[in-house]
Amino acid sequence: MLLFQKLDRSVHDRRAFSCGVPALDNFLKRYAAQNQDSGDSTTHVLVDSDNPANILGFMSLSTAELEFEELSADDLRRFPHYPVSALRIGRLAVSLQARGKGCGGALLGFAVRQALKVRDIAGVRILLVDAKDEEAENFYKHFGFTATSSAASILYLVI
After folding, report:
1. pTM for the predicted model, two decimal places
2. What are 51-88's pLDDT values in tens digits?
3. What are the residue ranges spanned by the domains of the chain?
4. Cβ distance 47 to 13 under 8 Å?
5. DSSP 8-class letter at 63
6. In whole angstroms, how large is the CA radius of gyration of the chain?
7. Is 2-158 CATH 3.40.630.30?
8. Cβ within 8 Å of residue 94, ≥6 positions away
9. How many Cβ atoms are within 10 Å of 144's Cβ, its own excluded?
10. 131: buried, middle or exposed (CB in 10 Å: 19+, 13-18, 0-12)?
11. Could you read off the pLDDT of 113-146 as tens digits, one per residue?
12. Neighbour-count burial of 73, counting CB atoms closer than 10 A to its CB (0-12 exposed, 13-18 middle, 19+ buried)
């Protein structure tokens, strides 16, 4: 059974993870636990309950805001004229071994559920992401994300 867990350096084997993108692999191996310890972001991993040390995918979350002017024309009338509170997906990656098995969508669904929890506590309205490339942009758009007015690589989802 697949499980989402907060990164725990004593349980999860970060060194064995590889998604094929050096910057994402490096983040998980070198910075994710450090950022979590400092409170800058949290990293959540997707694992199989039969082998929880093996990370199938991960994502990091932190707070953010999106300037009102960055909203699409359709969304401008739905929001007040000041920065909109957001939860940012800083990084999201699926291991090479788990690619094509729905893990990316599962991680994104988990991010949406986390954003809804934060919304109940702190009023977050948007899930925000900086897509690293066109493939990532298409992935997020497939799940309903909208590009900001100034950058196609910065996308958001109203929650």
Report:
1. 0.93
2. 999 999 999 999 999 999 999 988 998 898 999 999 99
3. 2-158
4. no
5. E
6. 16
7. yes
8. 19, 56, 57, 103, 104, 107
9. 12
10. buried
11. 999 999 999 989 999 999 989 999 999 999 999 9
12. exposed
